[in-house]
Write a structure and sequence with these properties.
The complex is a heterodimer of chains A (448) and B (160).
Chain A: E1 7-9, E2 35-39, H1 46-56, H2 61-76, E3 79-81, H3 91-96, H4 100-105, E4 110-119, E5 122-131, E6 136-145, H5 150-166, E7 175-182, E8 189-196, E9 203-204, E10 212-217, E11 223-228, E12 235-240, E13 246-248, E14 256-261, E15 267-274, E16 277-284, E17 290-292, E18 300-305, E19 311-316, E20 323-328, E21 335-336, E22 343-349, E23 355-362, E24 365-372, E25 379-384, E26 386-392, E27 398-406, E28 414-422, E29 429-431, E30 436-442
Parallel strand pairs in A: 2-3, 2-4
Antiparallel strand pairs in A: 1-6, 4-5, 5-6, 7-8, 7-30, 8-9, 10-11, 11-12, 12-13, 14-15, 15-16, 16-17, 18-19, 19-20, 20-21, 22-23, 23-24, 24-25, 26-27, 27-28, 28-29
Helix pairs in contact in A: 2-5
Chain B: H1 2-31, E1 34-35, E2 38-39, E3 47-49, E4 52-53, E5 55-57, H2 67-82, E6 88-93, H3 100-120, E7 128-134, H4 145-151, E8 153-158
Parallel strand pairs in B: 6-7
Antiparallel strand pairs in B: 1-2, 3-4, 5-8, 6-8
Helix pairs in contact in B: 2-3
The chains are: A mainly beta (448), B alpha+beta (160).
């Protein structure tokens, strides 16, 4: 509920007419030609600045919000945010009516301006998106929220502008749940952690007393499922990150692992290991009914639903080695789809439905790749010594995964970090975390 | 003088061959810790009792017991029969060269393969529990074939 307290008020919104649309961001090619965009600091009067600097410990919240937007756009690889020092027009005047010649002089094609006001303990932020070449306003919106949500305002503005300019939903007002890691490899301490997509507001959800692995978000709410070794019994847990309340999922006489939610968030699908054999099960979170989906003496694990819930992709070694399979959600029509050289693991169905991301092991290297759901069109996006477990951004455009690298010259020691890469294979980036990190999972958009 | 120099040369040759053979035995020793890619050394092995090793090792992606593993497990079974009040946990592990979830399943499969063998030698299943740590608890943090071979293991641990 805490996340619903951000009120989005439609201020005024000029519906985009296609004939105005001179700016277009080519999203099929990655970062080859990022769009130059000027993000003016959001203006605010001195009393607003004073009030907010006291409560938020931020000098100029309008400037800071513009930096949040700027950072999001730079990370996306699709935009080239221009240096604020080159801006000729003052933020407050630009917000009223930009001098388009000034902005086109610095080669900006789009401009974001805005204004922040503070009254009755509420932060009110308005922004406008301008098309510089057409000399037109493209979009205008205002939000009212509690001041401490100021970073989220920056993310929501980023999503609105991204959607207006690319025609796709954004992914900035989202969070990442992951495993924070510390200590030597033989006694690694792991904690559940959550942060904003841009690495801010990290919170630790467990203390590190027990081993925790593979957290995943419910796509419809703020629940998380993960594997915990609490009392040395590896079991799938369900955690409400709002209340901190958690419970074991189901009553299985052995290890349950590799959990994920169904697309409607009402079921958990996972593996259950018994007598040396792992099969796939689901549990309905409303009526607690457990169903067995696979029944095969091989290892069946890492299940992931298609976005319509009709199919499941999973990992099995029934052919002798780890490969990727799909089946109907009732377990029928099992079909192997990976046939390239090497081993394949961790399949995850794209939120758009057309692709499956995976980890591939071949000749001592690990690859993150994607293939179509019939197994054709395999594309390897990145190669490294060790990396795995891709997770999709909610718009199906970016993958986040983790990678271990050697830290000393002898090729020993190691560091685990989160990385993201565009579906096109461009724009590979380190995702900054306070500690070492692994097993990232991307949330849905928080605001819609 | 000539004689002296010859002696010196001979001495050098002997010295060189000693150095070389020392190198050779050292490499051999490292090789000797693995058969195929199954670890056969002892440096990480602990003992449940005198002459009863606590762990068995596996080949990459395998859960089949080797001849040496079966011998170790027979010793464990004999010791468990003599100490009938002891219960054990079999901890199954995998090396780091695999995906996390698959390795959890593989560790479980390895520990169960050891459990099955103990049961065929008369140890009741209610004295044996099984846990998999996948690749989460390596015994050797190195990233090389020898380290990985030590980490692909099932360890029998006294539970009481």
């Amino acid at each position: 509920m805490k996340y619903k307290n951000i009120l989005i008020i439609l201020f005024f919104f000029i519906f985009p007419n296609k004939s105005f649309g001179l700016i277009e961001v080519d999203i099929t090619r990655g970062n080859l030609n990022p769009l130059p965009i000027a993000i003016s600091p959001l203006s605010s009067d001195s009393s607003t600045k004073n009030e907010l600097s006291k409560s938020l410990n931020v000098q100029d919240v309008g400037l800071e919000i513009s930096k949040v937007i700027e950072n999001n756009f730079r990370q996306s690889g699709l935009f080239n945010p221009l240096d604020k020092d080159s801006f000729l027009q003052k933020p407050d005047i630009a917000h009223l009516k930009p001098r388009f010649e000034d902005w086109s002089l610095i080669k900006a094609q789009a401009l974001i301006t805005g204004k922040v006001t503070y009254s009755e303990d509420k932060l009110r932020v308005e922004f406008r998106l301008w098309d510089i070449l057409a000399a037109k306003e493209m979009m205008a919106l205002a939000f009212t929220t509690v001041p401490k949500n100021w970073r989220r305002v920056g993310h929501i503005i980023s999503d609105k502008v991204y959607e207006r300019l690319t025609g796709e939903k954004g992914y900035f007002d989202t969070r990442i749940i992951f495993v924070s890691e510390k200590g030597p490899k033989t006694q690694r301490i792991k904690k559940l952690a959550i942060m904003d997509q841009d690495g801010f507001n990290t919170k630790y959800l467990t203390l590190g007393n027990e081993l925790v692995l593979t957290p995943r978000f419910n796509p419809t709410n703020q629940m998380v499922t993960y594997l915990s070794y609490f009392r040395n019994l590896p079991r799938v847990y369900l955690l409400d990150i709002e209340t901190g309340i958690q419970e074991v999922v189901g009553d299985f006489p052995g290890m349950t692992f590799a959990p994920r939610f169904s697309p409607n968030g009402k079921k958990i699908i996972m593996s259950f290991a018994m007598d040396g054999n792992s099969d796939i099960y689901t549990m309905d979170l409303e009526n607690r009914i457990v169903e067995r989906i696979t029944n095969h003496p091989s290892i069946d694990t890492s299940p992931s639903y298609s976005p319509d819930g009709k199919f499941i992709t999973f990992n099995s070694d029934r052919s002798g080695y780890q490969q990727i399979y799909i089946m109907k959600s009732d377990g029928s029509n099992v079909k192997r789809i990976s046939f390239g050289k090497g081993l394949y693991g961790t399949p995850v169905w794209s939120p758009r439905g057309d692709l499956i991301a995976f980890t591939k092991l071949h000749r001592g290297k690990f690859y993150i790749g994607v293939m179509r759901t019939d197994g054709k069109g395999e594309r390897l996006l990145t190669e490294n010594y060790y990396q795995e477990a891709p997770s999709w951004s909610p718009n199906g455009r970016v993958l986040i995964f983790y990678r271990e690298t050697k830290t000393d010259s002898k090729g020993e020691g190691f560091s685990a970090k989160l990385w993201s890469i565009d579906l096109t294979g461009y724009n590979e980036r380190l995702v900054e975390t306070e500690t070492d990190a692994s097993d990232p999972s991307w949330s849905s958009l928080l605001s819609n | 003088m000539i004689l002296g120099r010859n002696y010196k040369n001979i001495f050098l040759v002997i010295l060189m061959s000693l150095v070389l053979s020392a190198c050779a035995t050292q490499t051999k020793k490292v090789d000797g810790q693995m058969q195929g890619d199954v670890y056969t050394g002892t440096d990480t092995v602990e003992y449940l009792a005198d002459g009863v090793p606590d762990r068995v090792f596996f080949a990459t992606n395998e859960s089949v017991l080797t001849t040496a593993s079966r011998e170790t497990l027979r010793k464990q079974a004999a010791w468990l029969r003599k100490n009938s009040d002891v219960t054990v946990v079999l901890e199954g592990h995998a090396d780091e060269r695999g995906t996390r979830e698959y390795n959890l399943a593989l560790g479980e499969r390895r520990a169960n393969s050891a459990k099955d063998y103990l049961m065929t030698y008369g140890i009741s299943s209610n004295r044996i529990s099984v846990i998999s740590y996948g690749k989460e608890r390596p015994v050797d943090s190195g990233s090389n074939p020898l380290a990985w071979s030590k980490n692909r293991r099932s360890v029998t641990v006294k539970a009481n």
